[in-house]
Request: fold
Amino acid sequence: MVLDDGTRWRSALARATWLNPPPDVQVREDALLVTAAEGSDLWRTTSYGFVRDSGHALLVELPEATALEVSFVVDLPEQFDQAGLLVRSGPEQWVKAGVEHSDGAPQVGAVVTRGVSDWSVAPVPAWAGRVVTVRGSRAGDALTVRARVDDEPWQLVRVAPLPPGPLLAGPYCCAPSRAGLTVRFTDVRLVPADGALHG
Reply:
Protein backbone atom coordinates (compact mmCIF):
# COMPACT_ATOMS: atom_id res chain seq x y z
CA MET A 1 0.00 0.00 0.00
CA VAL A 2 1.43 3.34 -1.04
CA LEU A 3 1.00 6.22 1.36
CA ASP A 4 0.43 9.44 -0.59
CA ASP A 5 -1.14 11.55 2.16
CA GLY A 6 -2.15 11.27 5.80
CA THR A 7 -5.71 10.13 5.06
CA ARG A 8 -5.14 6.45 5.74
CA TRP A 9 -3.37 7.17 9.01
CA ARG A 10 -6.21 9.39 10.18
CA SER A 11 -8.68 6.67 9.23
CA ALA A 12 -6.63 4.09 11.15
CA LEU A 13 -6.54 6.34 14.20
CA ALA A 14 -10.33 6.67 14.05
CA ARG A 15 -10.88 2.88 13.88
CA ALA A 16 -8.23 1.75 16.35
CA THR A 17 -7.87 2.06 20.12
CA TRP A 18 -4.78 3.16 22.01
CA LEU A 19 -3.38 1.00 24.75
CA ASN A 20 -1.90 3.81 26.84
CA PRO A 21 -2.15 6.87 24.59
CA PRO A 22 1.30 8.34 23.93
CA PRO A 23 2.30 11.91 24.82
CA ASP A 24 2.38 12.92 21.16
CA VAL A 25 1.19 11.56 17.80
CA GLN A 26 1.78 13.31 14.48
CA VAL A 27 0.23 12.32 11.16
CA ARG A 28 2.54 12.99 8.22
CA GLU A 29 2.02 12.34 4.53
CA ASP A 30 4.13 9.20 4.62
CA ALA A 31 4.28 8.21 8.28
CA LEU A 32 2.80 8.15 11.74
CA LEU A 33 5.18 9.61 14.34
CA VAL A 34 4.63 8.30 17.87
CA THR A 35 6.49 9.72 20.86
CA ALA A 36 6.82 7.34 23.80
CA ALA A 37 6.54 8.38 27.43
CA GLU A 38 9.62 8.03 29.58
CA GLY A 39 9.41 4.75 31.50
CA SER A 40 6.87 3.15 29.18
CA ASP A 41 7.32 -0.61 28.91
CA LEU A 42 5.63 -4.00 28.53
CA TRP A 43 6.97 -6.77 30.80
CA ARG A 44 5.82 -9.19 33.48
CA THR A 45 8.05 -10.29 36.36
CA THR A 46 10.71 -12.61 34.92
CA SER A 47 14.27 -11.76 36.04
CA TYR A 48 13.54 -8.04 36.51
CA GLY A 49 10.88 -8.58 39.17
CA PHE A 50 8.47 -5.86 38.01
CA VAL A 51 5.24 -5.66 36.02
CA ARG A 52 4.92 -2.95 33.38
CA ASP A 53 1.86 -2.50 31.16
CA SER A 54 2.45 1.10 30.08
CA GLY A 55 3.68 0.64 26.50
CA HIS A 56 1.89 2.47 23.68
CA ALA A 57 0.06 0.45 21.02
CA LEU A 58 -2.55 1.33 18.40
CA LEU A 59 -4.74 -1.78 18.37
CA VAL A 60 -7.30 -3.28 16.00
CA GLU A 61 -8.91 -6.71 15.94
CA LEU A 62 -6.74 -9.50 14.51
CA PRO A 63 -9.18 -12.05 13.07
CA GLU A 64 -8.40 -15.73 12.56
CA ALA A 65 -6.33 -16.52 9.46
CA THR A 66 -4.96 -12.99 9.11
CA ALA A 67 -1.60 -11.32 9.60
CA LEU A 68 -0.68 -7.79 10.60
CA GLU A 69 2.44 -6.16 9.19
CA VAL A 70 4.01 -3.13 10.87
CA SER A 71 6.81 -1.16 9.19
CA PHE A 72 9.00 1.39 10.96
CA VAL A 73 12.40 3.05 10.80
CA VAL A 74 15.01 1.57 13.13
CA ASP A 75 16.09 4.78 14.84
CA LEU A 76 16.42 3.41 18.37
CA PRO A 77 19.74 4.73 19.64
CA GLU A 78 19.46 4.27 23.41
CA GLN A 79 19.21 1.32 25.78
CA PHE A 80 15.83 -0.45 25.63
CA ASP A 81 14.33 1.87 22.96
CA GLN A 82 11.91 -0.45 21.14
CA ALA A 83 9.25 -0.61 18.44
CA GLY A 84 7.34 -3.21 16.48
CA LEU A 85 4.14 -5.24 16.66
CA LEU A 86 2.01 -6.05 19.72
CA VAL A 87 -0.53 -8.90 19.68
CA ARG A 88 -2.63 -8.90 22.83
CA SER A 89 -5.31 -11.00 24.49
CA GLY A 90 -5.10 -9.13 27.79
CA PRO A 91 -2.60 -7.78 30.33
CA GLU A 92 -1.24 -11.27 31.11
CA GLN A 93 -1.24 -12.76 27.58
CA TRP A 94 0.52 -10.93 24.77
CA VAL A 95 3.42 -11.00 22.31
CA LYS A 96 5.56 -8.03 21.37
CA ALA A 97 7.97 -8.45 18.48
CA GLY A 98 10.27 -6.01 16.76
CA VAL A 99 13.58 -4.28 17.28
CA GLU A 100 15.01 -3.17 20.62
CA HIS A 101 18.29 -1.44 21.39
CA SER A 102 20.06 -3.63 23.94
CA ASP A 103 23.69 -3.89 25.01
CA GLY A 104 24.93 -1.47 22.38
CA ALA A 105 23.13 -2.70 19.25
CA PRO A 106 19.70 -3.09 17.68
CA GLN A 107 18.32 -6.56 18.34
CA VAL A 108 15.44 -8.31 16.58
CA GLY A 109 13.38 -10.37 18.94
CA ALA A 110 10.16 -11.15 20.73
CA VAL A 111 8.72 -11.20 24.22
CA VAL A 112 6.05 -13.86 24.76
CA THR A 113 3.99 -13.38 27.91
CA ARG A 114 1.65 -15.91 29.48
CA GLY A 115 1.47 -14.76 33.07
CA VAL A 116 5.22 -14.10 33.01
CA SER A 117 7.42 -12.84 30.17
CA ASP A 118 10.24 -14.46 28.25
CA TRP A 119 12.59 -12.69 25.82
CA SER A 120 14.62 -13.83 22.83
CA VAL A 121 16.87 -11.55 20.75
CA ALA A 122 19.52 -11.62 18.03
CA PRO A 123 21.76 -8.66 17.05
CA VAL A 124 20.99 -6.91 13.75
CA PRO A 125 23.40 -3.93 13.64
CA ALA A 126 23.01 -3.62 9.86
CA TRP A 127 19.33 -2.79 10.32
CA ALA A 128 20.04 0.57 11.99
CA GLY A 129 18.49 3.47 10.05
CA ARG A 130 16.54 1.20 7.71
CA VAL A 131 12.86 0.29 7.38
CA VAL A 132 11.96 -2.98 9.10
CA THR A 133 8.66 -4.81 8.71
CA VAL A 134 7.44 -7.17 11.42
CA ARG A 135 4.70 -9.62 10.49
CA GLY A 136 2.52 -11.47 12.98
CA SER A 137 0.51 -14.24 11.32
CA ARG A 138 -2.37 -15.86 13.21
CA ALA A 139 -3.23 -19.46 12.32
CA GLY A 140 -4.99 -21.82 14.71
CA ASP A 141 -3.19 -21.96 18.04
CA ALA A 142 -0.05 -20.18 16.85
CA LEU A 143 1.33 -16.76 16.06
CA THR A 144 4.20 -16.88 13.57
CA VAL A 145 6.43 -13.81 13.73
CA ARG A 146 8.67 -12.90 10.81
CA ALA A 147 10.71 -9.78 10.10
CA ARG A 148 12.65 -8.29 7.23
CA VAL A 149 14.59 -5.15 6.43
CA ASP A 150 13.59 -3.23 3.31
CA ASP A 151 12.60 -5.83 0.67
CA GLU A 152 15.01 -8.55 1.77
CA PRO A 153 13.69 -12.08 2.47
CA TRP A 154 11.60 -12.70 5.57
CA GLN A 155 13.36 -14.15 8.61
CA LEU A 156 11.57 -16.32 11.14
CA VAL A 157 11.70 -14.67 14.58
CA ARG A 158 9.37 -16.75 16.72
CA VAL A 159 6.51 -19.24 16.76
CA ALA A 160 4.42 -18.63 19.87
CA PRO A 161 1.24 -20.18 21.29
CA LEU A 162 -1.92 -18.11 21.15
CA PRO A 163 -4.97 -18.29 23.40
CA PRO A 164 -8.33 -18.88 21.74
CA GLY A 165 -10.69 -15.96 21.40
CA PRO A 166 -10.44 -12.30 20.40
CA LEU A 167 -7.03 -10.74 19.84
CA LEU A 168 -5.95 -7.17 19.25
CA ALA A 169 -2.84 -6.17 17.31
CA GLY A 170 -1.01 -3.10 16.12
CA PRO A 171 2.16 -1.03 16.13
CA TYR A 172 3.75 -0.42 19.52
CA CYS A 173 6.67 1.47 21.02
CA CYS A 174 8.24 1.85 24.47
CA ALA A 175 11.00 3.92 26.04
CA PRO A 176 11.77 2.30 29.41
CA SER A 177 14.92 4.31 30.11
CA ARG A 178 14.46 7.83 28.76
CA ALA A 179 12.27 10.60 27.38
CA GLY A 180 12.30 11.77 23.77
CA LEU A 181 11.95 8.58 21.71
CA THR A 182 9.86 9.18 18.59
CA VAL A 183 9.22 6.22 16.28
CA ARG A 184 8.43 6.70 12.59
CA PHE A 185 5.90 4.07 11.50
CA THR A 186 5.70 3.95 7.70
CA ASP A 187 3.00 1.33 7.15
CA VAL A 188 0.50 -0.94 8.90
CA ARG A 189 -1.49 -3.47 6.92
CA LEU A 190 -3.81 -6.41 7.53
CA VAL A 191 -3.15 -9.25 5.07
CA PRO A 192 -3.94 -12.98 4.77
CA ALA A 193 -2.14 -15.29 7.15
CA ASP A 194 0.93 -17.25 6.03
CA GLY A 195 0.07 -20.34 4.06
CA ALA A 196 2.44 -22.55 6.04
CA LEU A 197 5.10 -22.35 8.73
CA HIS A 198 7.74 -23.61 6.29
CA GLY A 199 8.07 -22.81 2.60
About this structure: Residues 31 and 186 are 5 Å apart (CA to CA). Residues 7-191 form a domain with the Jelly Rolls fold (CATH 2.60.120.200). The chain has one helix and 16 strands.
